[in-house]
Specification:
The protein has 8 helices and 5 strands. With 160 residues, the protein is α/β, with parallel strands linked by helices.
Length: 160
């Protein structure tokens, strides 16, 4: 199972246009219809707001939108505490509330997160400044995290 965040969905939509990469999008649509790929509700809302065309395409594919659950909310609260974020005091350079919900959703359903969020090769001293991949890599979080191109590579599908 794969969970897509908004950055990966918008990256794919912008960089691999359907008109130029139809086999990729046919495969992608099949994965969505078979519920191998899903997105949290906050991602669907963000993607639809930023790119109505992409949001409409996702809707047409009958994508599985993972709703918030008590388990996801509890997990997000635990991750927030691990990062040392108190109340709504998120650091501008780190994860935000929606990011925590996306990571928590991925963890709860036991999936791999696909994100284009930048990798931090030197982690900040303050954990509240960690971006999604760094948060996913924390032992307390332990969520596999890849980029869209990695998803294509591990699929072993040849788009000809």
């Amino acid at each position: 199972m794969v969970v897509l965040d908004a950055s990966s969905m918008l990256h794919a939509w912008d960089n691999y246009p359907i008109a130029h990469f139809p086999p990729l999008w046919n495969w992608f649509g099949d994965q969505l219809k078979q519920h191998r790929f899903s997105i949290p509700g906050v991602v669907f809302e963000e993607v639809t707001r930023k790119s109505p065309g992409c949001g409409g395409w996702l809707r047409d594919q009958d994508i599985e939108v993972v709703p918030l659950s008590n388990s996801v909310l509890r997990t997000a609260i635990i991750i927030k505490a691990v990062l040392g974020i108190e109340e709504d005091d998120y650091h501008a350079k780190g994860v935000g509330e929606n990011d925590l919900l996306i990571i928590a959703t991925t963890k709860v359903i036991g999936a791999t997160l696909v994100t284009e969020e930048g990798r931090q090769f030197r982690l900040p001293d303050v954990m509240a400044k960690y971006k999604i991949p760094a948060v996913c890599g924390l032992p307390e979080v332990d969520v596999p995290c890849i980029q869209f191109i990695d998803l294509i590579k591990i699929s072993d599908v040849v788009f000809a």
